[in-house]
Amino acid sequence: MAIELGWHHLGTDAMRPPKNMSDLQAMQFRNIERTWLVLFVYDRSISLQTGKPWMIEISSYLKSVSNWYLHPLEMANDRLLCAFVSLRLITSSHFEMMTTRYAQQQRHETSRYRSTLRMVDEAIFDWQKRWTETVSERGEDCHAFLIPFYGSYARLLLYTSSLRESIKLRDIVTTVDTEAIWNSYSSALDMLQLVSEPSASQLVYYAQDSIHVMVAYAAVFLIKLLLSAPTYMRTEMELPALDSIRNAANVFKNLQAPAGTSCALQAAFLHKVFIKHESRMERRTSLRLHVPAALAAPAAPLASVDPAINRPTPAHAQTMQRPNINPAYNDQNTFPDPSIYDIDFADDEAWASLFADAGFNIGQGAFMSPT
């Protein structure tokens, strides 16, 4: 309908505001622009999450809206809206670039492909820095939470897409791209730490369902990583990951939301995920005690990492220290822990069954009400 009304021509002579508008006309035209920007954000968000084609073309008008909020008729949410449009422009153009044939060929040239990932990562970081400062000028706590949260989620999507296509984490003869794994891991951790901050507790109570799905996805990724990563990496990541899941679960539980609401279902899901993985750890420890000594091998040495792009550490992630791991460490000499689970990272059916048991439908991106 918006396209039929010609809103996609915004910024051109066919859709310019009339001269000498009245205040009412100016507000009406501003609302048309605002609605079109919201539609673009939703269109690209749905496309990114589902893989379905988008409907709204990127125009010169959309590319120029980063300062759209600077207007006498600015509303409280306009800055956040401009931020989301800017992020969707990054994820649309850059993620499309990552899926081109040229980029796919670069996967076999590790250094070039990693440089491409870093370029996109840097664009997301710059976006997050700029818009965190911009929305903070208005003292909007909710918006100051959403900017780093969505930035971390965008980074998580960026690096998990790389992992899914390029490696099999449980294959110990494969060279593992630990830089991509670490960036995915730290992004998921940042998301859970953000919702666990005291200042965010009341914000997440009123959060949209999409926020809850992203929180659940971060927890899903961390558990997938812990169950499929090489032993030397899991050793570094397991306790911080479980702490973040447990803390987030407690935050949602302490909100005491009514049964059946997103907060209540989120609390139950995160708690089940935490308890189930603790049980796996106990069984893994028990199995390890029965491994013959001749088969035991020392943990793999952690080689130095190639210098990554230097940048400030987000306040909510300053307590995390990056393990001293090589971006492309070959795990051939590491004997894996005995495990009751051996699921390939890309085995969607197996993961869907595992997390459905904890109360989350991965395919639908929705919590499952207890029966």
UniProtKB/TrEMBL annotation:
It is found in: Nucleus. Its main location: nucleus. The keyword Nucleus applies. Keywords: DNA-binding, Nucleus, Transcription, Transcription regulation. InterPro entries: prtT. The keyword Isomerase does not apply. One of its GO terms (cellular component) is nucleus. GO terms for molecular function: DNA-binding transcription factor activity, RNA polymerase II-specific; transcription cis-regulatory region binding. This is Uncharacterized protein. It comes from Alternaria panax.
